[in-house]
Amino acid sequence: MSGFGHSISVSSTESELEEPASTDQEEAASTEPEFIVTTPTFPERLFARNFYPGKPRLNIYSKASIIGSLVKLLRGSPEMNCLLGSQFGALFHLPVSRYSNSAKLVHSFLSRQLVTMRLYELWFLFADKPLRFSLREFGDITGQKCEPEREKV
C-alpha cells in the first residue's frame, strides 16, 4: 500500500505492518521540528483584554436626513456647488439608507484599539488579527477626498 509518499508492505505470513528502512535524508528531517509556533506580538491595548469601558453610547444630535434637507434648500446655489466641490461633496452622494450608524460596532473596535504612535491611523485586534483604519480606508469607504489639497498654480 502507499500513502503520502511512504510505502508500507504487509507480510502475508505474520500479518504485521513493516515500514521500509529510512534514508539519511528522512532521519535528518525527523530530528528537525515539523513547525515552529510563533506568537505574534502587538502593541499594548488601549483597554485590557475582555474589559469594555461603560455601556456603548453614542451621542448624535443630527440625522443623515439633514443632508437631503440641505440639498433641497441649497440646490443650484453657489454654496451648494462649493460644498459639492469640497471634501464633504461625497456625503451628498451617499445612499443614506445603506449607511446606518452602528454604535455597538464602533464601540467594539474602539475597545480593542492598540496604542500606536501614528496619529492618522487606528489599529485594532479582531480575532487576534491586526486591522488598520486610517484616512485612506475612511476615504475608500465614504468616497470623501482625504488627500492633502494640492496648491493651485
From TrEMBL:
Domain of life of the source: Eukaryota
Acidic residues bias: start-end ranges: 15-29
InterPro entries (UniProt xref): DUF1985
Any matching Pfam family: DUF1985
Region Disordered, residue ranges: 1-34
Domain DUF1985: 110-150
PANTHER family, per the entry: DUF1985 DOMAIN-CONTAINING PROTEIN (PTHR48449)
Name of the featured protein: DUF1985 domain-containing protein
Species this chain originates from: Brassica carinata
